[in-house]
Amino acid sequence: MFIKPGRVKFEAAQSDEELDLYRGYLETLGMVAGLLLEEASEQNLTEVMRLLAETTGVSCCSLFLNKLDDSGEACANLHCTSSTSTGVRLLSDSPKFHEFQYQNYPLLSDTLHVGMVLSKQISELPQAEATLFAGQQIHTVLCIPLLVSGEMEGFVGLFSRDTTRNWLPLEIKVLCTIANSLALALVRKRVEQSLAVVATRLRALVGATEDLVIEYDLMGQILNIWTDNQTFSLGLNDSLAGKTLQQSLPDDMAQAILLATPRVLASGNREIFEFTLSVDEEDRFFMGRLQMLPSETGKAKNLVALIRDATELIQEEARRQSMLETMNLLEEAIVDLSPEGWLLNFSSAWSKLCDIPVENGNKCLGTPLSEYIYPDDRASLGELIEQLASAQKHSDVIRFRLLPIQEDPIWVEARLLAHCSRQGNVIALRGVLRDITSSHLQEQRITQLALHDALTQLPNRILLEDHLHQAIARAERNKTKVALGFIDLDHFKHINDTLGHNAGDAVLVTLSKRLQSVLRGIDTLSRWGGDEFVVLLPDVNNEEDFRSVAERLRDVARDSIDLDGVETKITLSIGFAVYPDDADGPETLMSVADHTMFHAKSVGRNNVQFFQDIHDKTLDREHVQLQTRLSRAIQDGALQVFYQPVVDAETQRIVTFEALARWHDDQNGWVGPDVFIPLAEHLGIIQELGEQIFDHSLQRLKTWREVNKLVQVSVNVSRLQLFAPAFVQNLLKKVDDHGLKPQDVVLEITESVALLDLNYESKRLHELHAAGFPIAIDDFGTGYSALSQLHKMPVDILKIDTSFTSRMDTEDGRRIVQAIVQMADALNLKMVVEGVEKLETVHYLRGLGVSQMQGHYFSAAVPAGMCDSLLQNNQVLFK
C-alpha cells in the first residue's frame, strides 16, 4: 500500500463493532493532531506511540528515524516506543532492535523507501526480517514510512504477538494519515532547531565584530548594547540599558545618532552618520549606520546603530571611496552606477559575487550592469533604473538573477538609491547588492509546499480559492463569467482496494496531466483532496466555451491507463456552476458546483452536469444559499442570544438564565435552532457560534450580577466545542476576564454527548468540574443512559426533557417523571424540569420536591434587555 496524503474517507459502518472502531480511530487521530500541533517533543511523540498501541491493540508501537552510522550506512534508529508487553519491551531494549542497518533487511528497506506500507506476518518475511522479530514471538509486523517531499525519513512500526492480526483498510488509512502528520511535525521541529542555531550564531557574530552596536527605542532609551572592542575606551557596558543616549554616551556620539534618527524615521532607509571623539588624547573618526527594525512588541519600531572606528580608513581616501572601503568589510557589494546603469565603481564584494578575480575586476568598469543579469530580469531592472534616473523614485529594492557561473543562477537583492547634486539633479546611482540565493530558494520551497498538492503538484485549496476570488473580481469588472467544476473519479476506491494505493496514486498523477492538457494557460486545475479535482475557468464570454471544455475534460479521461500491465479505464462525474448565473460569490459558487457534482453521480456517473440544466434545483439552491447566509451571519456576529429563566418555584426567584441562540434571516425570517444548529455543525462553524454565545452570556451575566448577586447563566456546549484543544483553559480565561468565577456558569451537555464514550468524555467533564464549573445533563431521559454510567459522571444537575413534561397529564407520564426525580434525589443531584406550561404541573412537581423549573408558564426565551427588568423585580410571579 502506498502512502497517500489527503483526507481520509470513511465508509458506512456495517456493525456496532466497526462503528466503535471508527470512533476510536477518529478520537486517536484528533488527539494525535493535538499533540503534534502542540509540540513534537520526546514526551508528545512517546504519547503518540502509546495512543497508537492502545488504539490498534498491538503489543508495541515504535518510531524509527533515519541516520547514518559510523561507516556512513543508512540506519533505522529507535527514537521512541510504547509497549504493552514485557517481552516486547525487552525487544525494544535489544541493541539489534535499537539500531539496525537497512541494507541488512532488503524487503523492509525497499518497501519503505518507495513509500509503501509493509504489512506481513512473520511467516511471510524473509529470513533476515523474520530473525529480527521472531526471538520475541512477534507474529505480525506493520511498518509505515514517514515521507517528506517524497523521501523516507523513518517509519512507524506496529508489532503484535497476535497470529491472526488483520488490518482493515480504514486502520491503514488512518495510520498513514498519522504517519504523514508525524513526518510534518518532525520537519517543523527540525526547522525550529535550525532557527535556534541561527539565532545563537547571530548573537555570537555580534559579539565577535570589532563594532559597537546600540539598540534604542523612539524615546532615545538604550535597550541593548554590544561590543567586545576595547579600543573604544568609552566605558560602555550592559549596565547602560535603560538609560538614555544623552545620559550614557559621549556628547558627540549621542548628538550624531540623534540627528540621524529623524531621517531614518522619515525615509525608512538606512542612514550613515559620522562623528569625532578624543580617545587617549587622539582625535578618532567614527562612522555609523542607523536603521530601523520592529520591536519585540511588534507595534513600535526600534533603531539600531552600528558604529565603528574608521580613522585609519578615512585618512587618505575621499569620503565616497572611504565609505565603499568601509562597507567592503561586509558581505554586501556596493556599486556606483551612471544614470544609464553603467558600472562606475564597486566594492571588492562585487568581484566575489560575480566570481571574478580581483585583479580582473576593473574590466567590469564602464559596462552595463544588465550584462551580468539574466535576460528575463533585465527589463524590470532597466525600468527601475529609468525611474531612479528621472527622479520618479528616490530608492527601491529589486530582486534579479546574476548570470550563472556554473549551472544555477545567483539570486541578488539590490537596494538602489539615486544620488543627487546640490541642484537636485540625479548624477549617479548607488546600489547595495546582497546574495539571497539560499533564502530565496527556501521561500520558493515553502511556497510550493504551502500552495500545492504533494502528489500531483497541482494547486491546493488555498491557491485555488485565491485564484477564484481574483477571477470573480475580474468578472465583475469586465462583465464576464467564471465557471467552476468539481470532478470526481467514479469507483476510484475499487482501484485502491484491488490494485493498491501505489496504483491509485499513479492514476491520480496521470489523470491530472491529462486534464491539464485540455485547459488554457489562465485556467486552474486543483486537487481538492482524495480523488476529487476542481477546475476553474475564468474570463469566459461564451457559454459554449466552458461547455466544450467540460466535455473535453470528460473525454480525455476515457483513454485507458496502464498500471504495470493492467489496463484500467476510468470515468468522471463532473458538476459545473457559473458565476454570476448560479451564485453571487465564491463560497456559494463552490457549494453549488459541489452539489451539482453529486447530482451527476446520482444520475448514473460518467457525465457532466451544469447547475442551470438541473430541473429540480429549487431546494438545493435555497439550501446552499441558506448555508451561505448562515456562514456570513456567524462571521459578522449577527446571531442573537435570547435567555429563558430557570425559576425556584418555592421562592419564585430567578436562579439561572439559559442562553439560547436565535437567528433572524433577512429572507426567511426567524430560523429555528433545530435548522441552523445542524447547519453550523455541518459547515464546521459551530465553534465560532459557541464562542459568540459564551462571550455574550458572560458579558450579560457581569451586568446582571450588579442587580442580583446569586443569578447564574447556563450555556449549551456542543461536542466539537467540548473537545477542542485548550477548551478548559480558554473558558477559564474568558470567565476571569469578565471578573466572574467558574461557579457562575453552568455548562449544559446533552445526554447523548455526555454518555457517548464514557471513558473519553468523562475525562474532559472531570477537568471542567475540577475547575469549578457546574455540569448539567440536558435533555435527560432521551439518551437511554444507564444508572451506572450516570453515577460515574461528574454531574451536578439533571434537566428533564420537555418530552416527559408534555406527558404529565397521563398516569404513565407522571410515574416516569416521579422515577427520575427519585433517582436524582438518590444521587444527590439538583433537578430542573423543562417545558412547564401549566399551574397544575407546577403544583405536582412541587409535591414531588422539585423546586427549579423552566418553561413558558414562567417566561419564554426573551432578549437580554427584558431580562434586566425581570431581575430588577427579582422574581417571576406565577400566573
From TrEMBL:
The species this protein was found in: Sulfuricella denitrificans (strain DSM 22764 / NBRC 105220 / skB26)
SMART domains membership: EAL (SM00052), GAF (SM00065), GGDEF (SM00267)
Limits of the EAL domain: 623-875
InterPro entries, per the entry: Biofilm_reg_signaling, EAL_dom, EAL_sf, GAF, GAF-like_dom_sf, GGDEF_dom, Nucleotide_cyclase, PAS
UniProt-recorded name of the protein: Uncharacterized protein
Record-level Gene Ontology MF annotations: catalytic activity
One Pfam family cited in the UniProt record for this chain: PAS
Domain GGDEF: 480-613
Gene Ontology terms: biological process: regulation of DNA-templated transcription
CDD domains in the record: EAL, GGDEF, PAS
Classification via Gene3D superfamilies: 3.30.450.40, 3.30.70.270, EAL domain, PAS domain
Record-linked NCBIfam families: GGDEF (TIGR00254)
